[in-house]
Amino acid sequence: LGIGLAILANSRPYEGLILSLPVAISLLVWLFLKKATSPWETVERVFLPLVLVLVIAALLTGFYLWRVTGSPFRMPELIDRETYAVVPFFMWQSPRPEPSYQYEDIRRYYTQNELNFYNSTRTLEGAMGVSVVKLIHFWFFFLGPLLTLPFIIAVATLRKKPPRAGADWKTPFLVSAVIACSLGIAGEVFFFPHYAAPMTGLAYLLITMAISKTREYRWRAKPVGLFLVRAMAAIIILMFILRAGAPLLALSPTPDFPLTWCNDAPVRTERARVAALLAQNSGTHIAVVRYKKNSQSEYDWVYNDAKIDDAKIIWARDAGASQNKELVNYYPERKVWLVEPDEVPAKISPYSE
Q1: For residue 329, what are the contacts with CB-CB under 8 A and spacing of at least 6?
Q2: 265-266 and 261-262 as β-strands: parallel, antiparallel, unpaired?
Q3: d(C-alpha 21, C-alpha 183), whole Å
Q4: What is the mean pLDDT of residues 29-40?
Q5: What is the pLDDT of residue 262?
Q6: Which of 44, 60, 218, 334 is 20 to 30 A removed from 307 (C-alpha atoms)?
Q7: 3-class secondary structure for 297-333?
Q8: What is the arithmetic mean of pLDDT over 165-184?
Q9: 228 exposed, middle or buried (CB, 10 Å; 0-12, 13-18, 19+)?
Q10: What's the whole-number mean pLDDT along residues 12-38?
Q11: If residue 286 lies in a helix (H) or strand (E), which one and from where to where?
Q12: What pLDDT is stored for residue 261 in this prediction?
């Protein structure tokens, strides 16, 4: 439990906290109702190991934050948003004053793209629409049509069978945890499926329980549920084989999540292709990235290794001839290239002032 909380705190802090609340409440209730265990035994076997792991994790995380941001209590994500963003984290917060931007494409992204989306959520219709889109994205990523079927059958089965006395706590706890996480995510302005990563375990458990209920389903005394469960397992295995073997068959399957694609080309793959081409050349390089004025690129190409001076390729924005010249003079041993991501495919050419 302690290691799991530490992982959540260092990957999805907010969503991990939302998940941790129902878990902590259920743990306290369980300890309170467990009469057979003495209080000292509970402290010795549960609280001391948990606190020890969390203290070690907090010290390591605080040391990391101090080395990166200068404070053990300030996360890089907060500094990033405070430096560039106008739109807040949550729907009930107000926009921040517009900061000073060095590059027009960064200003356009934060003050137009993000702000326009945020403003669209300020109405009741907009907020409901965004919530529906979040739900669709979650459903598409975690379930899809195939794994939705067990839930439909499980609900139909529950209606036919009255709840038995002394029913276990698993389903109510899991459903309440999913509701708590969903409400927490609903308050965020932006959402991608990986934001809900802490809910992955909950989703798998509920899917497994729904499949178990489906297996028991009978229609006109025939074991229809057993057939459906076996068919689902076979389809899942077949889909995995087809997906994994697609490159060998020179197939191009649709992406797992549509927003990762732009201009009919996989953006991240295209950047990787350009990086691979540059890496084939001897020496080190500077890639000056020049977007079009009305670029439709969904993702930024300019990001670098932590030790930027040792990187094979340094990615930089086109800041105009004079500022580009400063960068080129700072790295005189590097070859300089102009990269134009908005071309299809992306264009690479030797840089010239």
Answers
A1: none
A2: antiparallel
A3: 13
A4: 77
A5: 40
A6: 60
A7: CCCCCCCCCCCHHHCCEEEEECCCHHHHHHHHHHCCC
A8: 80
A9: middle
A10: 85
A11: strand 285-289
A12: 38
Place of tokens 């809910």: 199
Cβ atoms 224, 217 nearer than 8 A: yes
Q: Name the CA radius of gyration of the chain, rounded.
A: 26
Calculate mean pLDDT across residues 60-78. Answer: 94
Cα–Cα distance, 287 to 91 (Å, whole number):
37
Residue 204 CA to its chain's centroid (Å): 17
Contact 197, 16 (CB under 8 A): no
Backbone angles phi, psi at 314, to 5 degrees: -110, 125
Residues 6+ apart with CB under 8 A from 279: 312, 313
pLDDT attached to residue 264: 41
Q: Are 141 and 193 in contact (CB under 8 A)?
A: yes
Nearest to 343 by CA among 272, 279, 283, 291: 291
Q: Enter the tokens of residue 268.
A: 């991240």
For tokens 């990523």, name the residue: 141
84's tokens = 């560039």
Q: 0.70 exceeded by the pTM?
A: yes
Sign of the dihedral defined by the CA atoms of residues 295, 256, 241, 276, in that order: positive
Predicted local distance difference test score (pLDDT) of residue 269: 78
Task: Strands of 181-221 (E only): list them.
Answer: none
Mean pLDDT to the nearest integer, 322-350: 93
| Residue located via tokens 């609280």 | 47
- In angstroms, what CA-CA distances link 149 with 49, 113, 240? 41, 37, 19
Bridge partners for 336 per DSSP? 286
